[in-house]
Design brief:
By secondary structure, the protein is mainly β. The strands form 4 sheets. Strands 11, 12, 14, 15 and 16 form a 5-stranded antiparallel sheet that branches. Strands 1, 4, 7 and 8 form a 4-stranded mixed sheet that branches. It has a 4-stranded antiparallel sheet with strand order 3-2-5-6, with no helix packed on it. It has 3 domains: 37 residues; 88 residues, Carboxypeptidase-like, regulatory domain (Immunoglobulin-like, Sandwich); 108 residues, Immunoglobulin-like, CATH 2.60.40. The N terminus is likely disordered. Helix content is 14%, strand content 43%.
Length: 242
């Protein structure tokens, strides 16, 4: 019967090993839960990019547009966080940790503004009053027969050349230069005067692969200044059924 006793001992030894490893795993899990027992992100930051002269929101691109750079204090090194700004110039992040941050909009379509130190807590509001590089004014986007026709004026606030202007179309209201299924663009590479009237036309018949008859699309005009990392300046998009 010696072989039977040996067999039981071997099985008992294996069971003890299993119990030992399970105990270690549970202890590690409980320890991790204790270490991670910190309050979650309860702070929020929201606001709008506002034209300091007109008081109107500064229209943006949601893709490759201006972003809000946040650098949290108390950590070294720390990687900045970036908040996307919506087309209407507003932004919001409701999942931040309460702390002091350095906050600055960067790579924008306006004259650069200085960073600010902000104590971010619950429902923190922060608007940025800026001077846009270009104001897109007196915009009219209409359907003339079968053609989409846009007329507008430009007011530039810096002496740099305006690189180009464009009329952009997309089924989504976030339409813009980086998000367009059809476009008409004109290269300028020169300054403009406030009273100069620009006209751009887009023929849906030339884009039947993307623009389907009977559907509604969003159209938006924009202009780009010749400044490093500058983004397009816009007016709001207009919905038109073609």
């Amino acid at each position: 019967m010696a072989w039977f006793k040996t067999l039981n001992i071997n099985y008992a030894s294996k069971d003890m090993k299993k119990i030992f490893f399970i105990t270690l795993s549970l202890a590690g899990l409980l320890s991790a839960c204790e270490l991670d027992n910190y309050p979650g992100p309860t702070a929020s930051l929201s606001g709008t990019i506002i034209d300091d002269e007109t008081g109107e929101p500064v229209q943006q691109d949601i893709i490759r547009g201006t972003v809000i750079e946040l650098t949290e204090h108390g950590y070294d090194p720390v990687q900045p966080q970036y908040l996307i700004i919506k087309n209407d110039g507003s932004y919001e992040n409701s999942r931040l940790f309460a702390n002091t941050y350095t906050v600055q909009p960067v790579r924008g379509n306006f004259i650069a503004v200085e960073p600010q130190e902000v104590a971010i807590k619950e429902n923190t509001k922060l608007d940025f009053h800026v001077i846009p590089y270009i104001r897109v004014k007196d915009v009219s986007i209409e359907k003339a027969g079968t053609i989409i026709k846009a007329t507008f004026r430009l007011e530039q606030t810096v002496p740099n050349n305006i690189v180009k202007i464009g009329l952009y179309a997309h089924p989504d209201p976030h339409v813009g230069e980086p998000m367009a299924i059809a476009r008409t663009e004109q290269e300028l590479h020169r300054p403009v005067s406030d009273d100069e009237l620009f006209t751009l036309e887009l023929d849906p018949a030339a884009h039947t692969e993307f623009l389907k008859q009977g559907n509604t699309y969003f159209f938006r005009v924009g202009a780009l200044i010749d400044v490093g990392e500058a983004k397009f300046n816009y007016e709001a998009a207009v919905a038109i059924a073609i």
